[in-house]
Every structure is written in structure tokens, then in C-alpha cells.
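note to self — DONT lose this again. spent like an hour looking for the file last time. sequence + predicted structure for the chain T wanted, 116 res
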Amino acid sequence: MSTTIYGIKNCSTMKKAFDWLEAHHIEYRFHDYKREGIDAATLQRWCTTLGSAMLVNTRGTTWRKLSPTQQALAGDADAIGLMQTYPSLIKRPVLDHDGSLLAGFSPDAWAKALLA
């Protein structure tokens, strides 16, 4: 089994997610998309599976700093472009467990997906 957690290292939600994974003895690989970037193909797969509305964090300061024109996402291509330019816009964390994706940290959802 393969588990990759995507996010930004200095994020309180990510710390909760790391602590949860470690408490449940789940080995994982961490991909810091602020440092390593994120490719369009990965974002496209995520958008196809989860939908761009689930991935774009519209509650954070990065979103609020965007112009109304940038916020007017016309589809996945616009969302992918913004997420590549501003990785902080991607909801954290995104968990890829053997190809199954979860966006955001929910201990119940994670337990169902990873411990079942």
C-alpha cells in the first residue's frame, strides 16, 4: 500500500494530519507542494475525482487576496492554473491512499479509508 499526503509543512491542519497518521502507525510520503510544486496532470486527476470546488480553498487569505477576475473560475483549467501559481489555494491536506483521494482532514473519514 502507498500513502502520500500533500500539503504545506507549516500548517496547523497538516500537523493534525501528520499526528493522526503517526498515531495509527501509517507510513506515508509527504509532498510539500509549496516547496516541490505540483504538476498539472496531478491536479487534473484530483479535479476529475474530487472536483475543483473541493480542492480550491476559498476560505483562506490567499483566496481573499485574489482579484474578482481571478476568483471567477470558469472551470478546472482555471482552477488548476491558480493552484499551480498559488499552492496555498489547495485545500490541505490531500491524501492519496492507493489512488483513493481525500481532501481535508477528517479523522472519521480517514479512519474509514485507511483503517478499514
